[in-house]
Amino acid sequence: MNARTFFIAALTGAVLVLGACGTKQSTSEGTAPEAKDAGAAKYTIGMSQCNLGEPWRVQMNQDIQAAAAGHPELKVIFKDAQNDSLRQRSQIEEYVGAGVDLIIISPKEAAPLTAPVAAAFAKGIPVIVLDRRVLGDAFTCFIGADNKRIGRAAGAWIVQRLGGKGKIVELKGLMTSTPGQDRNSGFREGIRGSGLEIVFEADMKWLEPDARQEMESALARFPKIDLVYAHNDPGAHGAYLAAQAAGRDKEILFVGIDGLPHEGQVYVKQGILAASFEYPTGGREAIETALKILAGETVSKEITLSSRVFTKENIAAGGEWLKKP
Ligand code: FRU
């Protein structure tokens, strides 16, 4: 780090860390203008993460960092948009201004992030969109699991588990983000024709405290609830806590999505969740794809990751892969 970089890093509260195996990584707001200055890495990748308040996103950054660690030619800069689409938009613009070689974005919402991604792409900067989508196709590559398939599989699993009938609460992820939309529409397809009834639905914006609050309303209104389908594991856990506080956790099943080893999988082992559907972060695949793009190779426009379901019965064996549609 030269004196100027150090000064700017100190000014902005930036933390520069040298990753294992010599890959340079920085975690901060505000290091982008120095992207080309620091160190001898051949390529600078700017990563914009929509928030770091959720374990799944911390895991995604760790997966990116771990995958990049074996490549000293890469320097990865991380920015946290703190769940603010406008801030995330500025981050993309800053990366473009700094002249990074490639951008990875995991966008908070589709519509507000579409234009800045398209502008970066139009300037010739490759953009990998990870997990949540933007609108249109002005980007290099999208990487993520198939949320519709996950929603459908969750629906089918729940129909089977409940013997075709029951009262359901659906706690939705942020409905301005594509996984929320797809986990909802896929689920509705999966339960079509069954006797399941959605008695309560609410947007808990992916957040455990919001899910808990929504579940309190559902519990107050409905004396009988058989199962909660939440679009992520924090949401399912928030609902569980509300039910536990009301003394009703034993009469309700909880199903979530993410299946992190230290979160959803643990809840399944503890019997808190009846099932968790894996949603891989795609961090490793993003770096593998970035390396190909930077080497001038053509990559697929869409890379779809596989997903497993974890239940009490299969978790010891590593879960069960969802079937291709
Ligand atoms: C984290 C998260 C995950 C979810 C993903 C969907 O922000 O809410 O729990 O699977 O985003 O994009």
* Span between termini: 50 Å
What is the count of structural domains? Answer: 2
Strand content: 15-25%
Mean pLDDT: 91
The order of strands across the largest sheet is 1-2-4-3-5-6-7-13
What is the helix content? 25-40%
CATH superfamily label of the largest domain: Response regulator
What does the largest sheet look like?
8 strands, mixed
What is the radius of gyration?
A: 21 Å
Number of helices: 10
Which series of helices and strands comes N to C?
Answer: HEEEHEHEHEEHEHEHEHEHEHEEE
Remind me, CATH topology of the largest domain? Rossmann fold
Overall geometry comes to elongated
Overall number of strands: 15
Q: Give the CATH level 1 class of the largest domain.
A: Alpha Beta
Bound molecules: beta-D-fructofuranose
Indicate the CATH architecture of the largest domain: 3-Layer(aba) Sandwich
Detail the poorly predicted runs.
1-38
Assembly annotation? single chain
Q: Can you give keywords for this protein?
A:
alpha/beta, eight-stranded mixed beta sheet, 325 residues, elongated, 24% strand, 10 helices, binds beta-D-fructofuranose, disordered N terminus, seven-stranded mixed beta sheet, Rossmann fold, 2 domains
List the helices and strands and how they pair.
Elements: H1 3-12, E1 15-18, E2 24-27, E3 43-49, H2 55-68, E4 74-80, H3 85-98, E5 102-106, H4 110-122, E6 127-130, E7 141-145, H5 147-161, E8 165-172, H6 178-191, E9 195-203, H7 208-221, E10 227-230, H8 233-245, E11 253-258, H9 264-270, E12 275-278, H10 283-294, E13 302-305, E14 308-311, E15 320-321
Parallel strand pairs: 2-4, 3-4, 3-5, 5-6, 6-7, 7-13, 8-9, 8-10, 10-11, 11-12
Antiparallel strand pairs: 1-2, 12-14, 14-15
Helix pairs in contact: 2-10, 3-4, 5-6, 7-8
The chain binds beta-D-fructofuranose.
